[in-house]
Amino acid sequence: MLHIASFSGLRHKALMMETSALFIAAVFVLAGLTKGVIGLGLPTISMGLLALVMPPVQAAALLALPSFVTNFWQMAAGPSFKAVVWRLWPMMVGVCLGTWAGMGLMTGASARYGTALLGIALAFYAVTGLAAFRFSIAPSREAWAGPLIGALTGVITAATGVFVIPAVPYLQAIGLEKEDLIQALGLSFTVSTAALAVNLAADNALNFGLATPALGALAMAAIGMWLGQVLRMRMSPATFRRWFFIGLLLLGIYLALRAFA
Questions:
Q1: How far apart are CA 171 and CA 61, in angstroms?
Q2: Residues 234 and 104 sit within 8 Å (Cβ to Cβ)
Q3: Residues 116-160: tens digit of each pLDDT
Q4: DSSP string spanning 155-182?
Q5: Which of 192, 219, 224, 249 would staple 29 via disulfide (CB 3.0–4.6 Å)?
Q6: Which residue, among 33, 19, 80, has the nearest Cα to 220 in the 3D structure?
Q7: What is the pLDDT of residues 63-90, one digit of tens each?
Q8: Which stretches of the chain are assigned E, i.e. beta strand?
Q9: Cβ neighbours of residue 120 under 8 Å, at least 6 residues apart?
Q10: Alpha carbon of residue 191 to chain centroid
């Protein structure tokens, strides 16, 4: 009887692991698809959904490689790399300093609030996207606004693993051309991922045991991005973007409420 119970327990555990692996694969396909259609959303979708089944720090560690590779490609593929870097380097310094100043927020005494903060950040981002809220920043203000926005983005990144707020609205506000904006987003996300990886390594969240799952996640994200590019040719990006933000808003609200339940 004990032998049968032990076998049943092992079988249940194996089934749970298989289900978890399938869920994670589906998350990265969906996140990659979103990025393929609208040019962003891989870390945002991944962190939001993975937080349903694992702590934010574990989700951020699993996301590090797929996020870095896909965003590095987006950063390097644009036409104005040097110009974008020259214009945004003060902001990127702020991102790094803010992220490193927040080291431990995802794993320390305040870690239990990480899921709530993630939910609030996702919901806020979704609301600004649905409202199509736009503001502009004069070039003369970028010298101080860039580092400030970067530092704030860094602290939020350190606490939640999401690096879209307030970086994305800021980059949309400084008047970049379409292709330069895509490249600037790639630069910001690449730097944020690298800075967060330093925090994760310091907290021993990155290890060689993640190599195989991370490579699998990268493969799923790449498949999703390919599907997203195909879908983009057949579907209005504006329509997809609207439903993306609606889904993100519902997910953010759920995560925030669950954390305080």
A1: 26
A2: no
A3: 887 888 888 888 888 876 778 888 899 999 999 999 999 989 988
A4: HHHHHHS---TTHHHHHHHTT--HHHHH
A5: 224
A6: 33
A7: 899 889 888 888 887 778 899 999 999 9
A8: none
A9: 252, 256
A10: 12
